[in-house]
Amino acid sequence: MTVEPGQPTPADAVYLRLRRRLIEGHYPPGSRLVEERFAHDLGVSRTPIRQALARAAAAGLVQLFPNRGAVARRFALDDLLEIYELRAVLEGHAAARAATQIDAQQLDALEATASALEQAPAHGFASRTDEVHFLVAQSAHFHDTIIAASGNQRLAAMLGNVVNVPLQFRSFYWYSAEERRISNFFHRSILTALRHGDADRARAMMQEHIYHGRDVLIQSLREEG
Amino acid sequence: MTVEPGQPTPADAVYLRLRRRLIEGHYPPGSRLVEERFAHDLGVSRTPIRQALARAAAAGLVQLFPNRGAVARRFALDDLLEIYELRAVLEGHAAARAATQIDAQQLDALEATASALEQAPAHGFASRTDEVHFLVAQSAHFHDTIIAASGNQRLAAMLGNVVNVPLQFRSFYWYSAEERRISNFFHRSILTALRHGDADRARAMMQEHIYHGRDVLIQSLREEG
DNA sequence: GTTAGAGTTATTGTACCCAATTTGCGGAAA
DNA sequence: TTTCCGCAAATTGGGTACAATAACTCTAAC
Fold first, then answer.
1. Which residue, A24, A112, A156, B132, has most beta carbons within 10 Å?
2. Where residue A43 falls among pLDDT bands split at 50, 70, 90?
């Protein structure tokens, strides 16, 4: 009787699988994404595939060309600059708003996540890849908590799309121990600012955190080629 | 979001028509949008209709419920607060970036648009509705020019979605002569700041311009019920 | 050797079909 | 009267067939 959510449909699962593979860089940028191939691989018809591709296009993960199909999005340096600029503006704003609205439970969550990031080396991961995946997930959780604390659902949705960039581009940062220390320092600074309700400092630290991450990424790309 | 080659398909036309009618408030918020009805009205099958509805959902114009179809989005007060907050942040940033990047041609365009807004009353429109539509279009052009001058295409795309709010909500502002004068003042202030390359002032004026528009809108909604 | 053109192939876009789910109504029981 | 159950109508979701468009190849002419 209530007008509530509705359970996720099979098509949602198709989209999530496609999205996951795109984010993890499973398809080379610029490669064609033929519908029939996905339909065969996932055991469904082209109909849900087309829906998933349309959603991926709206999220900026693929480009759609009329009568020519979908292509895995190619991220040039300009794209990364645009994305990090938007992240800095939007997450900086989210941090500022969170400073005056965050509750104790969310602060606890941030504290736990920050600690997990600091103590990750002691966990003894089976492989470097496993550890980086853990760090990426924890970091994303830290940021998501602050975004949620800003109380603006549209802001959260927007950032959800913007941050949808292949994992390859997000992982560089976490490979250097020094960068991880700097990141942890920023997390602590942001957390302190949020605890003190200091909106300006929260915004400044968050923006600097993101711009620093951008610079490390670009530097890494330059060195790797 | 196709950018480059290929001809627009019939489905694109279907989406544009649907989107136009949604933005102009042709469908009451909360009303069900039955696929078959659109298919019959536009003379196509349900397939392109479903694509159009999916795109409209991604743009936030309609809400999609699994197995229950699409519903014209209902904009509550909270939604408007969220939207204007995001506009203030993003367009404020766009103005700041534009201050250091805008070229002479874009400044001329802004000058022309500002003048057109100031001299609109002398045009002698056939009806009040015609005049308001003209003002809305010119104002949108002023803002779009600044956003384009920011040079961040993703920022432009994001704002294109955020601003996609039924015309009904955007028109209130332009009905009062006093509010139009204030709006013109803000446009001139922003233009001056852009000419002087003053990023801080451009951002501040743009943010205040938007927040003022928000307050007028909310006040109007309160009075009208 | 290069290019223009026609025919062929591959892939997308749309129409239509049937299954699955939801919703509204009506009747029966408490 | 109210509530619950079940059936029926309406509508969406996914599959399939076919038309439309673009890409490709091969041939022929210059």
1. B132
2. very high
CA of A35 to C1' of C14 (A): 15
A207 within 8 A of A63, measured Cβ to Cβ: no
Kindly tell me the number of DSSP H helices and DSSP E strands found in chain B.
10, 3
SS3 content of chain A, % helix, strand, coil (to 5): 75, 5, 20
Residue B85 to residue A152, Cβ atoms within 8 A: yes
Chain A 42..61 CB hits on strand C (< 7 A): 46-47, 50
Burial A112-130 (b: 16+ CB within 10 A, else e): ebbebbbebeeeeeeeeee
Instruction: Assess contact for B91 and B146: CB atoms under 8 A.
Output: yes
Q: Dump pLDDT digits (tens) for B74-120.
A: 989 999 999 999 999 999 999 999 999 999 999 999 999 999 999 98
Largest pairwise CA distance in chain B: 55
In total, chain B counts a number of residues equal to 225
